[in-house]
Write a structure and sequence with these properties.
Length: 271
């Protein structure tokens, strides 16, 4: 029997079984993709912050919160209609541990408060968060979120006052007016508002964040990096800057927290 005959026979047998192999591979791939997609869908979920755990556990005092999963409920099939969000109802035949696998009610960490160990978010079932989880190196799932309401906004500004503090690191503080509304101040600066001004009754346009709750009454800092052994010169009055705002999740007010600009260096001190 020649080697060519053996090779031809092997190819014939391979051609017979190849369709079955390919079909099996497709089935495995489909199963794997389905499992993978389901995992991705479960990685993020919408929840509300609550004041207690599923079995009455007390609220935390640091960056940890009890969060409870919610589902969207709509009165019709129109995706454009305004939805409502409800907690899933637990069937009477399902015990609590089984139900919590479906409708999660667990501990999650607010990353915005993690470094400060603060606990300032409302726990009265009104704060929505998008929760995601990550498996740590010990195999334990950890849940995290960043509140939707903590949004940053940048608005054009003009420096009108400079407050200096000792350094280094230099920590000059600034106040001024907005370029889109010269009758509205930031950083504790109060502009003169003429009595006949058309903006005197409505100092803030509705499309821009208000600075009525500035974090500093006597100025806000420059957000550039400041090295500890460098003396920085303050910026001049009438310098244009970008004013960064953050929405306070407790009061609901926008706060001017700093300016984006560059302070020139004066000299460098020896280490």
């Amino acid at each position: 029997m020649s080697k060519y005959y053996l090779g031809e026979r092997a190819v014939t047998q391979l051609n017979k079984i190849m369709p079955f192999v390919l079909n099996l591979m497709k089935q495995k791939a489909g199963s794997s993709n389905t499992s993978h997609n389901l995992g991705l869908k479960k990685q993020y979920f919408l929840a509300k912050i609550t004041s207690a755990g599923p079995e009455g556990e007390s609220d935390y005092t640091d960056a940890r919160y009890w969060i409870r999963e919610v589902v969207c409920s709509s009165a019709d099939d129109d995706s454009r209609s305004k939805p409502t969000f409800v907690y899933p109802e637990k069937p009477s035949t399902t015990n609590l541990s089984q139900w919590l696998q479906v409708a999660r009610w667990l501990t999650a960490i607010n990353l915005n408060e993690f470094s400060s160990d603060a606990h300032n978010l409302s726990t009265d079932d009104t704060t929505f968060v998008a929760v995601y989880y990550k498996i740590d190196q010990d195999g334990i799932p950890r849940y995290y979120f960043s509140p939707f309401s903590e949004v940053n906004s940048i608005r054009g500004g003009l420096i009108k006052d400079v407050f200096e503090e000792s350094g280094p690191p230099s920590a000059h503080l600034y106040g001024g007016i907005y370029t889109d509304n010269i009758y509205a101040g930031w950083g504790g600066y109060e502009p003169d508002i003429p009595s006949a001004s058309p903006s005197s009754s409505t100092a803030e346009p509705s499309s821009t964040p208000s600075s009525s709750a500035d974090t500093e009454d006597n100025g806000i800092p420059c957000l550039q990096r400041h090295d500890e052994n460098v003396v920085y010169l303050p910026m001049y009055v009438d310098t244009y800057v970008s004013v960064v705002h953050k929405k306070n999740t407790v009061t609901g007010l926008w706060e001017a927290v700093g300016v984006v600009a560059g302070e020139d260096t004066d000299n460098v001190l020896p280490p």
